[in-house]
Amino acid sequence: MPWSGVSCWCQGVAGCLTLLQCWIYEYFPGFRPSHFEPPVVGPDEAWASRWIGQPATGSVADPSVRLAFYRRALDSLTPSDVCWTPFHQRPHQAVRRSLYTGVIRFADIGEFYDPARCLRQFGYRQMVPPPPSRPQRADRPEAPGGYVIRIPESFDAAWDALLSHMVHIDMYSQPWRRYPYETTVDYLDLFVAHSHCRVLQDDGDADRLVDSAAVRFDH
């Protein structure tokens, strides 16, 4: 069946941006609102309620300056600056379906999801993941903004057959990681070879950098 997907040409984000912002605060403490300590939430409260919207104070109005600052902040992050398991030390024990591997679909939008590619977020040492799943066919229209993929019908039923479509996390449990961001050596080689290790790529962006005192995280 044909499904739509997203692409790098998209210039907007749809959905609940508040939840996305809360996700950023949890995983990247350095981007949290200044001078704000999130309260402890009760068992029946939404986790996102830890974060209260605050008006921007002392922020730089020029969007390009703010963008340059955030790019610099991202490039300055170290592995220890990331909270790898903010919600649970073993998230899959609390939400078993998070180990599902396959296509996640909403209406006619589908994206491949594979927990083996982010094992550190499950409390395990990151190893080289298996090759990603591939659609039967993918077509990119002339107009940028998306593409159309065709996948086997069996992929559409995978969500309802969890036991046969999930990552077996036990194979990653030994040895236990010694620190939250531990990886195997071969994974780092793969990451450097196939990932964008830095956001800033040219001197034009570097000319726009500003000191952290000029841009506030209160927004």
Automatic annotation (TrEMBL):
One of its GO terms (biological process) is meristem maintenance. Pfam families: PMD. Residues 13-189 form the Aminotransferase-like plant mobile domain. InterPro entries: AminoTfrase-like_pln_mobile, MAIN-like. PANTHER family: PROTEIN MAIN-LIKE 2 (PTHR46033), PROTEIN MAINTENANCE OF MERISTEMS-LIKE (PTHR46033:SF8). This is Aminotransferase-like plant mobile domain-containing protein. It comes from Linum tenue.
